[in-house]
Each structure stands twice: as C-alpha cells, then as structure tokens.
Structure prediction request, 110 residues.
Amino acid sequence: MLLADDGGELLGQTTFGSSRDDDVAADMGEVRAFFVRPASWRRGVGSALMRAALQWLGEVGYAEATVWSFDANDRANAFYEHHGFRRDGTRKREEIWDYVLEVRYRRALP
Prediction:
C-alpha cells in the first residue's frame, strides 16, 4: 500500500500486488485499488502514486499489470489510459458492485 499525504492529510492511496484473476500468467501484477481525493485531482498525486506502484511491480518481477475499472467511469479510464493501460477485452459484473459493468485494463511493465 502507498499513501500520499500532505502534513497528515490523506490525499490518495493505492494497493497493488499479484493479480487476483485466474486467467492470467503468474507474472501479472495488479493495481488493486486506487483512490485520490477529488480536491487533489489533476495535481500530480494520482500520477505519482501510479508511477510508484508500477515501478514496484516491475522491480519485484511482474512483466505486466492490470487494473479493473467501471466501464462508465470516464475520468478514471482516461487516467489509466494516460498511464499506458489499454482494455484487454475482459469484462465482469459482481454483486458487490451491484452488477455494474467492470472492464480490465492491462499494460507492460518496464
């Protein structure tokens, strides 16, 4: 887990590790959760968190990374695409999210 804070005020956080998906290779990492406070959007907080998470995943040996997002979350999806993620065609609906359509993004790691 990585946290971004400003003098004790939480600005954002991310968790990451091995992929939880059954249909990917063992060298697939995953950005599991990614949140930035709306007041911190477009200030570099999210980009710094994403770069650090992807760097760590690459350093520990993952070849690629995935992240799940809601299909209709245009802001988040544009952010992931800006950071090199592309949809891989995998979709799901889960009860925990009231069956809202989720899509998987994937990218190679440096």
Notes: The mean pLDDT is 96. Helices lie at 45-59, 74-82. The two ends are 20 Å apart (CA to CA).
